[in-house]
Write a structure and sequence with these properties.
GO terms for molecular function: DNA binding. The chain has about 375 residues and is of the alpha/beta class. The chain has 19 helices and 7 strands.
Length: about 375
């Protein structure tokens, strides 16, 4: 067999998770162990059906398995998972339902691809570097700073069970569920953690247990840096003090409580009891108004970058105007796009093409004489 087949086999083996045997992979791919072994060692070809099965079972793209290169049109994504106290693992129970929303977002980015430039900013590698890049007070307009400084598209979408970071046609995207602002702040920091630490370098939903812990640690250090937290005399702090800290950091009471526990800070009983309150109730102690406590952080439904590119592709006749109509929420008649050619124009184009072809053939014949 060719070297190409051996390389495909090596890529398949490289994606087998720890604990998966060739026997279990063969069963999942509906192959005999002998056939799989020969295929993995380059002594047998692979059918399209088997390739599709391997991609599905291993969470890889068929394009990557065949070529060794990322599929530019594949969507790679990671989610903010929920901690399951029964299994002591991070889970994403809404993944299958959320995939419909994510696939629609990917469809729009693919349609706009011709007029989209890839995200080119090199992301800061540490939480400290990220804070410096985003600038003082970044949490007050977090999404806007992320877009402006990092060239990461940030959008908000209803119907999701959690928050996601995506890579699609070269663009980095964070999709936030419509939630209370304190969760939005933490989720955006968490998804930046996935992007910064390279968790989206493989196809599919690839964030594992270790990835989730790293993303959470990044978010904690970005929003509640250890140096800042240790600056305070925790035994002497009051409920009002910690309420003001929560408001300044734009995090939830629960996030502050977990950070205190993680850093083993000696907070007073008064502070610990205050952090058991809901975030809005705690913030009444910081003398914030109801409007501030229940504010809606502005995050657009779609990034202006992809909308501008989609409109440009639609006007060129490269994107479906019906898709653009649904994205903008306007009648398709309000969309500017080229009219399809009439039957007469199609006939005229065909005749012109055939005439040009005959002229080229005649010219080639004369040259040969």
């Amino acid at each position: 067999m060719s070297e190409d087949m051996r390389e495909i086999g090596e890529r398949i083996k490289s994606r087998m998770p720890e604990g998966m045997t060739q026997q279990s992979l063969a069963e999942a791919m509906e192959m005999t162990p002998d056939a799989l072994s020969r295929m993995l060692n380059g002594k047998r070809g692979i059918t399209m059906t088997e390739l599709g099965k391997a991609a599905e079972v291993l969470g890889a793209s068929a394009h990557w398995l065949v070529t060794g290169h990322k599929d530019p049109y594949a969507m790679r994504f990671a989610a903010r998972h929920t901690y399951d106290f029964d299994t002591h693992r991070h889970i994403n129970e809404g993944r299958e339902k959320d995939r419909e929303v994510l696939d629609h977002i990917a469809e729009v980015y693919r349609a706009a691809h011709g007029s989209l430039r890839a995200s080119s900013v090199v992301l800061p590698k540490t939480a400290k570097q990220m804070r410096e890049a985003l600038g003082d007070g970044f949490v007050n307009d977090f999404a806007a700073r992320v877009k402006e400084v990092l060239d990461v598209d940030v959008m908000k979408r209803s119907g999701l069970s959690t928050d996601y970071s995506l890579c699609i046609v070269g663009r980095r995207v964070v999709v936030l569920n419509k939630q209370f602002w304190a969760r939005t702040t933490w989720s955006l920091a968490h998804e930046l953690g996935h992007l910064v630490q390279g968790h989206l370098d493989r196809d599919g939903d690839i964030a594992g247990e270790a990835d989730e812990k790293q993303a959470n640690a990044f978010a904690a250090e970005l929003l509640l840096p250890e140096k800042w937290m240790r600056n305070f005399n925790w035994p002497a702090l009051t409920r009002a003090d910690v309420a003001r800290m929560v408001w300044e950091a734009k995090v939830s009471a629960a996030a502050m409580r977990v950070r205190i526990e993680t850093l083993r800070l000696k907070a007073s009983d008064e502070v610990r009891e205050a952090l058991e309150l809901t975030t809005p109730k705690l913030l009444t102690l910081a003398r914030t108004s109801a409007a501030e406590r229940y504010r809606d952080v502005f995050v657009p439904d779609w990034s202006p970058t992809v909308i501008a590119a989609l409109l440009e592709e639609t006007e060129k006749g490269n994107a479906d105007p019906m898709l653009t109509s649904r994205v903008l929420g306007v009648p398709v008649d309000d969309i500017d796009f080229p009219e399809p050619p009439s039957e007469e124009e199609m006939v005229e184009r065909y005749e012109r093409t055939m005439l040009d072809r005959r002229r080229r053939d005649d010219g080639a014949g004369e040259s040969a004489l």
